[in-house]
């Protein structure tokens, strides 16, 4: 049996510095001594723990949630993130925790994000998507008005309608080589975007509204061998003067 000793402060509070984390189901006995008297209590680690920081929130917790910053979804979250999972909803939108988050990082083996899953994170400036991601549904990340840029993971092949609608502050967009189609208003009102990089050798199918209200000086960079193809492709041709080699 190991013994750890700590001293109490003026208020009688103390912290016992364990050398290692105790494990599930293990008993810990804490004994206090004062003026010859002793008192002991027994603590037990839960035998079946849950959670453990699956959703991590940083920042200040004073006046919660007004001053939170980064939200991280840990590696324990896998597979599909269901529709509306993290969406501020209805009349409570202005008070929802997610409207105050400043960034989102998804670390787990997430392969699909369903419609409206993260809609309306109006204060978030940064989004980090996992490399495992393959499918993003419509409206999943719409109305991120303060987000500054976006990188789409390499396995994503399609951006559906209204998926990243209203990213008014975003400066840069990166689209991987696998992208084959971009739906209506997928990147509508990217009013501040300076640069779009699209790695696809074959121009993805887009509609006339896929990039509606794009900043008038935004440059579109594509593989050098594909510049002419993009300039001639349906709906891409409207941006022909802005298309140049990476």
TrEMBL record:
This is Leucine-rich repeat domain-containing protein. InterPro entries: LRR_5, LRR_dom_sf. Gene3D superfamilies: Ribonuclease Inhibitor. Pfam families: LRR_5.
